[in-house]
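## retry 2 of 3
previous attempt timed out at serialization; input unchanged, resubmitting
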Amino acid sequence: MIVEEALRRAVAGDPLGGGQLLIPLIEDSRRECFALCVMLATAATYGMRPQGSDQLYALQVEDTRTGRPAALEEMPPEVLFAARFAAAWANRDGDGAQALFDALSDDMQTDAGQCRVIDGVIALFGLAIARGRELAAPQAPLQEEN
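## retry succeeded, writing output
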């Protein structure tokens, strides 16, 4: 599977090579691109648990410069799309995920629209890579209290 191989490469340290594998899926059709977004959102939220009293999934995106949560108004549009799409999909809000994708890909037939879609998908890929690395990281053994 192309997406699995792309993620495997990226988690192993070759995100550019992994991302290159996704380009044909993005360019093939809106349907293929939406399916790719769903697969990446599933990978980005794998093993996470719902939070809060409403038991919904929420993705917190950190500012890489400060390490603190990023404010929505400060996020680049592609990162905002990726976080919202992944959260919508994890919350089983297929209509919301579809609406987010439709807004992103509205003018996909133009060069500028194609670039926005690629940027959004690559940001979603970045979330999936981060989750994959988190899951692949060796877990520190629990220390017993004396």
